[in-house]
From TrEMBL:
It comes from Albidovulum denitrificans. Pfam families: Isochorismatase (PF00857). This is Nicotinamidase-related amidase. It comes from the Bacteria. Signal peptide: none annotated. InterPro entries: Hydrolase_YcaC-like, Isochorismatase-like_dom, Isochorismatase-like_sf. Residues 12-161 form the Isochorismatase-like domain.
Length: 192
């Protein structure tokens, strides 16, 4: 592998279970910043023509993804009803990711130690390179760090919203084109 960075032309963004029932498990002060970074990364992906695959766990029982997520998605984006913990274990979700033709999956969402970790491991098993965004994933308490450790040990790249943004951009020309499209949506706590 010559290029260890994630490439916008090879990436797909998976937005996993950003639903109120899971967000409510986090410390109150962590919820809005996490949601802000996830929504911003969706907007960045769209501006860079990176496919976005969105899902919610048992939508009938747990509700749809949060309003901010739904507003950031393209109007024609299907939101999959995820019935398993690891998205690669569900035929339609795995097929949707693979149908993008992208070799790299970037994961955001909830919960780090369960659905994000199991999705990451399943996607590695399906032959993709995987990154999990440390500050755009979450679990309550020590479970977040445990999920990151498990993924790191399995070969998942752990990076940040800022880190993946600049990997996707790569150069000042692209930055100049993209910054006006996503700059206003940048969370206040994200320093670029």
């Amino acid at each position: 592998m010559d290029d260890l960075l994630f490439n916008r032309d090879q990436s797909v963004l998976a937005v996993i279970d950003v639903q109120d029932v899971f967000l409510a498990k986090l410390a109150p002060e962590a919820r809005a910043p996490l949601l802000g970074r996830i929504v911003w990364l969706i907007r960045v992906a769209r501006a860079l023509d990176i496919p976005v695959i969105a899902m919610g766990e048992d939508i009938a029982r747990n509700g749809p993804p949060m309003a901010g997520v739904m507003d950031a998605l393209a109007a024609d984006t299907a939101v999959f009803d995820k019935r398993v913990f690891g998205l690669a274990g569900q035929d339609d979700l795995r097929a949707a990711v693979l149908a993008t033709g992208r070799a790299q999956a970037v994961l955001v969402g909830l919960e780090t130690d369960v659905c994000v970790a199991q999705s990451a491991l399943g996607l590695i098993g399906a032959g993709l390179r995987v990154a999990a965004i440390r500050d755009a994933t979450g679990s309550p308490g020590a479970d977040h760090a445990a999920g990151l450790d498990r993924m790191r040990a399995a070969g998942v790249t752990i990076t940040t919203a800022k880190g993946i943004y600049y990997e996707w951009l790569r150069d000042l020309e692209t930055l100049a084109c993209i910054k006006p499209l996503v700059g206003a949506a940048k969370p206040d706590d994200l320093i670029l």
